[in-house]
Specification:
11 helices; 2 domains; binds pyridoxal-5'-phosphate; Aspartate Aminotransferase, domain 1; 42% helix; three-stranded antiparallel beta sheet; UDP-2-acetamido-2-deoxy-3-oxo-D-glucuronate aminotransferase; seven-stranded mixed beta sheet; Aspartate Aminotransferase, domain 2; alpha/beta
Length: 375
């Protein structure tokens, strides 16, 4: 068998090569490298896809999370509620603005923010009176939207801005409502390894609020006013390259077929592994884009053994994520200790993700399942 890739971007490129090459060549001959027509077209297509009114393409997923916090004027003394079982950027953006991330543990089966923990933490912060509760960033981990039907009323009740971190969620949905359409803002990433990725860094912010959309567009270009050399607020340089937009357009056209394929692959994995492992749980009425396919081992020792056996068989596997954010060194001053977020801590010790992408084949999945079953 040829080398097994964790995420086979080469297979995708070979599949879409003609359209991607043509798109790149057009940008090179037009020389409109920043905010070119392909960027505008991509934003329109992303609005159509997600059902959101406004899409602001950006330089990466992290800036896409940062910009709504900036638009809302969040800063020192403010609490931003985030899950600890996610990529660092989810909490980092709060800290970048001098606000304080407040961690809320996740659900054991979906890995997403537990609405009950969120409400408990908001009430604790209110009672303590030291920080002002301002925003919630809920993550669509591994492709499944967070529990927005339960999280949205909590945000309404306490007057919190809700931001969907859809960096891994693009393509997921709850009933007919697509990822990137939940909350006041949604942020996604087009980092190459994401389900919809470009060939460099890229991202987008979404909102239905016209005023906020205008604010985000100003923040994207150094807080510009009516023209580029009038500055009315502090902003960023957070634009998406035209080249990346041209690469994303054909990838977006192929995205639904790839998402169907990833769901087929997830089902094929789960049907062969469910009697031996805890396979991913997708809630009733939810649809996961399955950017990642993640299993749980029974213990840290068992996981080490499994991953070594996979490696010996030429199968790549990755731990997303080995350390919960509340226990990261940089957050020591926040005073969290082991045992504070038991579900996230246990997940960090037991999860591992298997190869998953829109072009994975039956024989690869069956070989991986056979290897796992024989451990
Ligand atoms: C990838 C990712 C980000 C950051 O996106 P970048 O484009 O790498 O800045 C934020 N949140 C989550 C959950 C991610 O997976």
């Amino acid at each position: 068998m040829k080398k097994i890739e964790f995420n086979d971007l080469g297979a995708q490129y070979r599949h879409l090569k003609d359209d991607i090459d043509k798109g790149i060549a057009e940008v090179l001959s037009d020389c409109h490298f920043i905010s070119g027509p392909q960027t505008v077209e991509l934003e329109q297509e992303l609005c159509k896809y997600t059902g959101r009114k406004y899409c602001i393409s950006t330089s990466n997923g992290t800036d896409s999370l940062l910009m709504p916090l900036m638009a809302k004027g969040i800063g020192p003394g403010d609490a931003v509620f985030v899950p600890p079982f996610t990529f660092f950027a989810t909490a980092e953006v709060a800290s970048l603005l001098g606000a304080t991330p407040v961690f809320c543990d996740v659900e054991e089966d979906t890995f997403n923010m537990d609405p009950k923990c969120l409400e408990k933490e908001v009430e604790r912060v209110v009672k303590e009176g030291k920080l002002k509760p301002k925003a919630v960033i809920a993550v669509d981990l591994f492709g499944q939207p967070a529990a927005f039907p339960e999280i949205e009323p909590i945000c309404k009740k306490y007057g919190l801005t809700l931001i969907e971190d859809a960096a891994q969620g693009f393509g997921g949905r709850i009933q007919d409502k697509k990822a990137c359409s939940f909350g006041d803002f949604s942020a996604t990433s087009f980092f190459p390894a994401k389900a919809l990725g470009c060939y460099g860094d890229g991202g987008a912010v979404f909102t239905d609020d016209e005023e906020q959309a205008a604010l985000l567009k100003s923040i994207r270009v150094h807080g510009k006013g009516s023209f580029k050399y009038e500055n009315v607020r502090i902003g960023l340089n957070a634009r998406l390259d035209t080249l990346q937009a041209a690469i994303l357009l054909p990838k977006l056209r192929a995205f639904d077929a790839e998402t169907e394929h990833r769901n087929w692959a997830a089902q094929r994995y789960s049907s062969q592994l469910k009697d031996k492992f805890q396979v991913p749980v997708v809630r009733d009425g939810y649809f996961s884009s399955f950017g990642y396919y993640t299993l749980k081992a029974e213990s840290e020792e068992q996981r080490t053994k499994i991953m070594a056996a996979l490696e010996a068989a030429g199968i790549p596997s990755i731990i997303y994520y080995p350390k919960p954010l509340h226990l990261q060194k940089v957050y020591e001053p926040l005073g969290y200790k082991e045992g504070d977020m038991p579900v996230s801590e246990k997940l960090c010790k037991t999860v591992f993700s298997l190869p998953m992408h829109g072009y994975i084949t039956e024989d690869v999945i069956d070989y991986i399942c056979k290897t796992l079953r024989n451990i």
